[in-house]
Design a protein that fits this description.
By secondary structure, this protein is α+β, with helices and mostly antiparallel strands. The chain has a single domain, classed as Immunoglobulin-like (Sandwich). Helices cover about 15% and strands about 30% of the residues. The strands form three sheets. Strands 1, 2, 5 and 10 form a four-stranded mixed β-sheet that branches. A four-stranded antiparallel β-sheet has the order 4-3-6-9, with no helix packed on it. The protein is globular, with a radius of gyration of 24 Å. The relative contact order is 0.21. This is Carboxypeptidase regulatory-like domain-containing protein. Keywords: Signal.
């Protein structure tokens, strides 16, 4: 009887410790790095554009964002919209889209599903922003993130 109580108590303690270690904590992916709110607006040929990807490339970390219909974006480093660590970053700005693709090769209900699509069925990749901006090394754009709120406007061209 004494052994049964001891085993039961040990089992309860063990399960309690296991469950305590399995919690989600704060729900964050941040490993303890201080981030600062950062976002802004992207203009293509002077007008806002939706769906533009903005990438910050740093020595140790990076961040990214996607613009809304007003061209506004908020950077993510670890968790959605959390911000960016302090530092100077090179910036890439791009929007690529595949047009004219035949999606029937990827539709399970299509007779084309599973077949190798011919090259013309893959469509064409269209860059909506000049190619030089797609690479942080060639864009000429930088962002200096400081403690506190950071707002950036990136003006790029389509050609």
């Amino acid at each position: 009887m004494k052994c049964f109580r001891l085993c039961t108590a040990s089992l309860v303690c063990g399960v309690s410790l296991l469950l305590a270690g399995c919690g989600t904590g704060t729900g964050t992916n941040n490993p303890g790095v201080t981030v600062h709110p950062a976002g802004g607006k992207v203009l293509v040929d002077g007008a806002p554009m939706e769906g533009v990807t903005v990438i910050l490339k740093g020595d140790e970390r990076g961040a990214s964002a996607k613009s809304n219909a007003q061209g506004e974006f908020t950077f993510t480093t670890f968790d959605p919209g959390d911000g960016v660590p302090e530092g100077t970053y090179k910036v890439a700005v791009l929007k690529r889209e595949t047009v004219g693709a035949d999606s029937s090769y990827f539709d399970e209900n299509s007779p084309n599903y599973g077949k190798t699509p011919p090259p013309e069925a893959l469509g064409k990749v269209v860059d909506h922003i000049a190619e030089k901006y797609a690479d942080a090394e060639t864009s000429g754009l930088t962002a200096d993130v400081k403690p506190g709120a950071n707002e950036f406007t990136f003006e790029v061209t389509s050609k």
